[in-house]
Amino acid sequence: MNEAENAQRRRRRLPSRTERRVTFGLKVLATIAVASYLLTGLLHFFAAIRATGLLVVGALFLAYLIYPLVRRLNTLMPAVFSILVVYLLVALVGTLAVTLIAPPVGSDLQSFVASVPHLMAQFQQELLVPHNALIARIPAVDRLYLADLPSQFGALAQRYGADTLQRSLPVLLSAASLVGALVIVPVLAAYMLLDATNVRDQLLGLFPAKRRAKVDTIIDEIDGVVGGFIRGQLIDGAIVGVMIFVMLTATHVPYALLIGVAAGILNFIPYAGAVIGFIPSVILALAYNGPGNAALVAALFVVIQQIDGNFVAPRVLKDAVGLSPLYIIIAILVGTELFGLIGTFLAVPVAAMLRVLREQLLPMPVSPRDESAGAQ
């Protein structure tokens, strides 16, 4: 009897810690392999339907953008009428913006493009043969390096920017045509808003009953991350663009409206708006107003960046993304490498969605300090 009990105990022996670790490691490797295979297939699939995918992404962005207002109006009227009212407001605001901003921005853009060669030549001449005592104090080797920077930037733009535009521009021209922008995208966004509850219920129905609460939580968090990022970046970009426009106007730097609008639009890519607006602003201030004005503009750009990073963005975004600057930069680089210009804009929300999945599906690591505190 004892031998039979011992044999049964041996058969029921629990795996050791080493065996559990090896099993867990194998499961992780298998999960990574399957996820990589599925991700590769998904990337090829989206590459094959880039035009349709761009329309769907545009509709999704529009739906997230107007959802809070539609939800408020839906308490007073049916959902269809709420969407129609919001669309009328968006069309009115868009028409006013295009009517008031587009003509001066277009004029500034034409004038700026025509003046770029002269500005670059003047910038290089001032560095090579300085007339200003402050610039003359810069060592000749450093002035030579600075004078060569415009040509280096031009080579980089031609090498990487041309490739990005070559991959992205045909998609933009074919998919985001006037019909797609004015008809297909709003219609898709309206259907997304109307069918959101049904789609959610159908998605939850794919999972066992005991898993639905977890899946529902994940959907809520992803919805909050994507919606918060889209609406927050739009508001933050508008604020940054206005601050840059006011600052450049006050310091008498030309093309203030063009640079402010460009910085506001590019601010949808984190850290890009103010950084990209900084370079032409300083060069223009140096060319038109001298080194003192250029130094002032550079200092005010730092102030704007600090105001945005410490006061505006935290309150507007409310930590919706939840990613460190390192992960944001890596995500932007990877997205740009894979999908060009479109990937640049989508990189951060996709990375934020992956962050939510990791936090919900994988256990958080326990630090040695917390582990020792729990043991006590």
Can you describe this structure in just a few lines?
This protein is mostly helical and 376 residues long.
Tell me what the structure shows.
The model is unreliable at 171-176 (pLDDT under 50). It contains 15 helices and no strands. The protein is mainly α.
End-to-end Cα distance:
42 Å
Strand content: under 5%
Q: What general form does the structure show?
A: globular
Class derived from helix and strand content: mainly alpha
Which stretches are low in confidence, meaning pLDDT under 50 for 5 or more residues running? Answer: 171-176
Share in helix: over 70%
Average of per-residue pLDDT values: 76
| Structural Rg | 27 Å
**How many helices in DSSP terms?**
15
Task: Specify the biggest β-sheet.
Answer: none
Explain the layout of strands and helices.
Elements: H1 2-11, H2 17-48, H3 50-74, H4 79-128, H5 133-136, H6 140-175, H7 178-194, H8 196-205, H9 212-250, H10 256-266, H11 272-289, H12 291-317, H13 325-339, H14 341-361, H15 368-375
Helix pairs in contact: 3-4, 3-6, 3-7, 4-6, 4-7, 9-10, 9-11, 9-12, 9-14, 10-11, 11-12, 13-14
